[in-house]
Every structure is written in structure tokens, then in C-alpha cells.
Amino acid sequence: MNKxxxxxxxxRRESSRRTNSDLSRLHTIFELxxxxxxxxxxxxxxxxxxxxxxxxxxxxxxYAKLFEDxxxxxxxxxxxxxxxxxxxxxxxxxxxxxxxxxxxxxxxxAVNVPRGADxxxxxxxxxxSHSESSYLVVETPELLDYHNEYIKGAKQIKEIFVMTGPSMxxxxxxxxxxxxxxxxxxxxxxxxxxxxxxxxxxGASDLLTLIYTSGTTGRPKGVQLSHGNIMHNVRVIPDxxxxxxxxxxxxxxxxxxxxxxxxEYVALSKGTTLVYSSVKTFAQDLExxxxxxxxxxxxxxxxxxxxxxxxxxKKGPAAARIFSSLVWISSSFRRNKRKMLDRLPRYxxxxxxxAWLQKMVAxxxxxxxxxxYLLASRKLSAVQERFGGRLRLAVxxxxxxxxxxxxxxDAVGIRIVNxxxxxxxxxxxxxxxxxxxxxxxxxxxxxxxxxxxVSEQGVEQQTGVEGLIEVRGPQVTKGYYHNExxxxxxxTEDGFFRTGDLGxxxxxxxxxxxxxxxxxxxxxxxENIDPTRIENTITMFPFVQDAILVGQDKKGLGALVVPNxxxxxxxxxxxxSDLKKEKGELLADSHVLDxxxxxxxxxxxxxxxxKPYEKLQGIAFLEREFKLGEELTNTLKxxxxxxxxxxxxxxxxxLH
Length: 656
Fold this sequence. Notes:
- Helix content is 38%, strand content 18%.
- With 656 residues, the chain is of the alpha/beta class.
- The strands form six sheets. It has an eight-stranded mixed sheet, sandwiched between helices. Strands 4-3-5-6-7 form a five-stranded parallel sheet, sandwiched between helices. A four-stranded antiparallel sheet has the order 16-17-18-19.
- The chain is globular, with a radius of gyration of 26 Å.
């Protein structure tokens, strides 16, 4: 797909040469694609490296080239029999060919069934069978070989397409590489008119994609999302984040995941440039490409936070203390300024006198801190340079952003957009964009969306009272594919979707997430514990790479900790004089474990809002990280049930 663009006259529709795209009149993603390629014809759409490593050759794609590539692939797919309603399984990680394939499949009215390259064969077999997929697109020849034993016996698959590699098709073979499919890159005005005309046969209610949620519990479910579902998000999100064609995005999440996928459609909708990055090159790409918008999950922000903190600590104790002081000054100034301006969440209307007094105290603190804040802002601008220096929005979604992390990002001067959504909602439910200044919340529901908080009995709760979050709106799925049992559980009689999350509403109508109902740990004594806040507190320690709280049906709580071994040794060196031990000995040392447990428990105190029974009775260090695809979802959420199963004996020994 990297060949030079063929010059064909009048490919661009003259009537659509507007200064910007009008999203309100568009009903499908294909209409959006045609519109934006006409409007932003000469703009850069994508930048990527051929191999996604720092030294690989950079490729730049204009909207005109994107139009051509999608046309050619759609024509090739049609010639191979792909037609309206067909399910096309797409097994691939991030690459430019992914979005081209997605757009080509939808152009024909077919349905994209995407999944990441790390999908186990057993899961692939289940999804292909359950979704009734008849075509398979695979990223690489190596990935095809990996699943070859299953694929060669999968009779429901009519043909197989491989994105990369040389020509593969032989007589009587059903496998084609994109090299085979796109050997003829010539096309005529008749081809262009045929391609443009495909939009007439696609409606807002037509199924666009079937996304099988990896989920944190149980077997994946096929979420049905229509063009109308996703277009609702594409229409409303640009206004929430004030997106323009001058913006550029840096992308790292899996393209097949709804958070990233919708972000890419949103990026296209305003003619922005999207840069494909990777986990290995993300930090470097932030500095090189200097994006204005980054949308990713809390785990990535945790990694960047740890990287910055590690760099500061290497400069010595004095530098670390100075940096911590600067962050504290900035954080304190911003917090008091928000108190002064009523930009913190409120759950009831306070007595006038108390509110006035609080504002006066906050105002005094702001005045006193102002000179120090100006100094801190100048010094902390160096951290902003680590994020490229132009980052105006850091969007966090796909999980709960820890309070300390949100406060730190805000303190260094980066505007954080804390968003909430689910695959079933395409994904946006609420977001604290530029239209909301109330810090510590997820902002109001996105336009035309109803969110309510109910008790376990379904009774709507008052403002400030925690309950289960339910949502209704045009972005909500019509249900899970071939799964009536789950559909009955998921929807209320009046059409609200049960998210399974816990939250409450502020007096200003902003949403605050308080936990996940399905992940509540119930101790043997009957206490219910939401693990999220405790886990976030544990990960504040620099030597903690990851942590999961355990204790279901036990007498007390424990934590399984994935350590950063170098940081752990440095931390323990201040307490223990003799640490000349191998990694395995160190991680199992009872004195070390007891010391770390006590340090963590000092943070889990009542004055910090923790209950007495929320302290740890024991901790255990793990010798390996949680595995992506097995113990972590593709948005890096922990699959609690899988981890508990894998470490069942360790947990029993820890909390016997």
C-alpha cells in the first residue's frame, strides 16, 4: 500500500470542497470517510514506521492516498466475493493496513470482526464460529502459520487474506496476500463512481462491527455496533475536546479496541494527522512528533509517570526533593484555586457561611502560593517537553485513573481529559473535556445520553449517593450477538444498559466513578471492598510495577505485587544493610515482605479514608509480569478471575 498515488482526474468530488466537514448531516462512517477525504484531500492523514521500531523508515499518507488505498482494496475484496452482510474476521495489531482494511470492509456493507494478533487459537476458533465469519484477514504470514492447524480445517472460511509478505496465492489455494490482491493498481473514473456510490446502500442502523470484549470475567461476548452507534460519538466528541485540523494524535492502543478505533474515526473527522506509535517507541515519539492530543489508558500514564520519576531520582536525593516540592506547590495552588472558583465536585449545597469561609481561606492560600507557583510552573515546563511540549490534551479512558496520577499530570501543567466508556457504548458515556472545569469528576454525560444511578433494587438514587450506573443513548449497542441470556441481564425494561460500575452524581450533573460492582471483594466476615483505590495506592510506590488485591472469602486482604527489581533494591538499601541476594531470595525474604507490607499499610489509614479492615495481612512478590492477552486485557486491565486462578495456591498460603 506504499506505492505512489496514481493521478486520475476528477477523483475528488468538487461539490464537497468545503473548508471543514459538516458532521451533523452524516449518518454512517463510510459517508464520513468520503466527506473527509474530499475536504482534506491534500492533508496528511497518517504517519507510521514500516516496522514500528525507532530506526524503521517513516511513511506518510495523505487523505487522497487513503481514499485510493481503500478503493483498491474494496474492489479487490469484492472480486474475491466479499459482499453485504458478510462477517470478516480481522486478526491484526496496529498498522496503517488495519484502518484501510476496516474502511474497505465497511464500504462493501460487510461486518468487521476484529481481534489482536495475540489472540489464542482456541479463542480465535470460538469467535470465528460464533460470529459466523466467512472471511479471514491475518496480519502476517507468521501469524497465519501460528494458527495454521485450525485454519486449514476451518471450512466456514471461504478465503484468507494476509496483509504483509510476498505473493502467496497458488492454484486451488484460498489464501491471498495483499500483494496478490493489489497487483493491479490501475483504476478508472467508473471505479471511482462505483466506490462512491456504495454509500447509498449503507444505513445508520446497519451493523458496522462485532467486537468481542476480552473482558475481565468469563468468555468474550460479541458487541454489535452499528454505524449510527459510533457516528454519535464521532459527532459529539470533537466539540468536547475542541478538535481542529491543526491537531495531531499519537496512537498506541490496539486499533481493534473501541476506544482507539473511535478515536481514529474522530481524528479523521476533522482532518487531523494520526501517528501510529508502539509501546517501545512511545516515549521517544512523544518528543519527536510533538502531538497535541494523546488518548490512552491509565497503565500508559503510570508508565510515563514512573519514567519521569525514575529520571529525577537518578539526579540524586536533592533533585528528587526539589521536584517533589515543585509538584506539591503546583498541586496545592491548583487545588485551592479550584476551591475558590467552585471547580471541585459537590454532592450537596453547603451552608452559605461555610462556603464563603472555605473560599476565603482558599483565596488566601492562592495569593500566598502565587509567587512559588510561577516558579514551579517554569521549572515543571521541562516535564511538558518530555511529552513533546505541544500536548494540549491527555485523554485517559479504558479504566480508572488513580487520583495521585491525575493530580500529578495536572500539576505538571497538562490538561487531563478523564473519560468513561464501554465497548457497549461505542465507547463514550461521559468525559471531562474542555466544556467541563469540575476537577475530580468524569464530567457530564456526552450529549443526548441519559445516565442514572440506581440501587441494587433499581431505585434511582439521590445526588451524591453511590449506586449502579445505567446508561441510555444512541451510542448504546442493541445487544450481544446470539446471546439472549446476556442481553436480558444487560438491559432494564425501559432500555437502560447496566454498566456494572458504581458511581454517583454531583449537584452539577457530573459523574464520579467509585468502583466496579463485579470486582467487589467480599471477606469471610462479610465486608465488601472495592479493590481499585487500594491497588492505586500500592502502585504509588516506585518499586511497584503492578499490583492486585486478593482476599475473596478470606479473613483478610493480601496483595500480589509485580516489582521493579532495581527500584526495590534501591528502596530497601535505605533500610537493610545486607541485600546481596539473588532475585528469588530477595522476593521471598520474610523480613523484606513484612517491611514492605508495613510501609503500604501506613498509607491505608483511616485518615486517608480507608477502613480498618482494608489493611493488608500479607503480600507476595511475583517473579514475572502479568501476561497480555491472558491475565491482562488489551487495554491492560487485570483479569481478576484469571489471576486468582493462576495464583490460587499462593493466595491460599498467603491468607491461610
